[in-house]
Design goal:
Blueprint lengths: L1 H31 L27 E5 L28 E10 L5 E9 L12 E7 L24 E2 L5 E2 L5 E3 L4 E10 L14 E9 L3
Antiparallel strand pairs: 1-2, 2-8, 3-6, 3-7, 3-9, 4-5, 4-8
Length: about 220
Amino acid sequence: MTAGRHRASSGTGRGHRTGLGLAALVLAVLACVQLPGTLAAWSDGSAATTGTLTAGSMDLQLAAEGGATGAVGLGTAFDAAAITWSGLSPGERRAFELTVRNVGSPPMSWSATARQGATPAWTFTGDPVTVQLFEGTRTAVDTTYPVEESCTGTALGPVRAVGTSAAALVTAARRVAPGALDRVCAVVGLATDATNANQGKRGAVVLDLTGAQATS
């Protein structure tokens, strides 16, 4: 009887030890397995910063009658006092040389208009003062009567009467490369039909030259 009790007790111990072993094995397996979505996701990035970006500029420079250049800077006015005459009679005209230089960055296309200036006050009657632009330079200085100076090149536009509104002087815009110049000639005169009321009258002409970036 003692031997029978001993065998029964020995069987119970082996079952208990087996259960503990299986539990430990299950825990070990679970510890080695990660559930989906728990992995770390590493990443990297980089910001690229450029050097200084500087825009170009559109700028034209003028010179009249071989004088000092000016008008550098956007919208800067130019004193073309060298373009002047006095004592002209109807039908007479004088020619003046004008240089347009591109001191900007891109190729430039320029055009020009003429209008009455504010100073001195315009006292001419009607629109007897005329302006026309040409390529090239003045042919010669005319010292005889009647004064009829002209230019060497072809006309850039028709003869325009100078009024209160801007009159276009250039039919097709002129292209000038960066650093290059365009030599033009302005003929300023008194119309042949200027009335007697214009004797001794005066005024100034404003030539508005506009440069724009060439598109091609």
